[in-house]
Write a structure and sequence with these properties.
Oligomer: single chain
Distance between the termini: 29 Å
CATH class: Alpha Beta
Number of strands: 5
CATH superfamily: RelE-like
Strand content: 25-35%
Shape: globular
Mean pLDDT: 94
Number of domains: 1
Helix content: 25-40%
Low-confidence stretches: none
Length: 84
C-alpha cells in the first residue's frame, strides 16, 4: 500500500471542483493506493510524472517507489493543469 500526499495547490483545487467531478477524482485517488502505475507516463518537462485523465480534468502525480508515497502535484482542467 502506498501513502497519498497532496500538494497545497492540489488540496485547494480539489475543494473547488464541482460535485460531479469531485467524487470521481476522489475515487480515482483511492485507486492509487494499490496501483501507483494507474496513469500514463509523461514526457518532456514532466518526465518522471504520471497523469490520469478524467475528462475534462487531469491528475498529475509522481510515485516514490522506495518510500511508497504518491505525491499528487496538480488537479485541474486540462487547459491549465500543466502550467505552474
Amino acid at each position: 500500500m502506498f501513502q497519498i500526499r497532496l500538494s497545497n495547490k492540489s488540496k485547494r483545487n480539489l475543494k473547488r471542483l464541482d460535485k460531479k467531478y469531485k467524487e470521481k477524482v476522489k475515487n480515482t485517488i483511492d485507486l492509487l493506493y494499490t496501483n501507483p502505475l494507474l496513469g500514463e507516463k509523461m514526457a518532456g518537462e514532466f518526465q518522471g510524472s504520471y497523469r490520469i485523465k478524467i475528462p475534462p480534468l487531469r491528475i498529475i502525480y509522481t510515485a516514490d517507489f522506495e518510500n511508497k508515497i504518491i505525491w499528487i502535484r496538480a488537479i485541474g482542467h486540462r487547459g491549465g493543469v500543466y502550467k505552474n
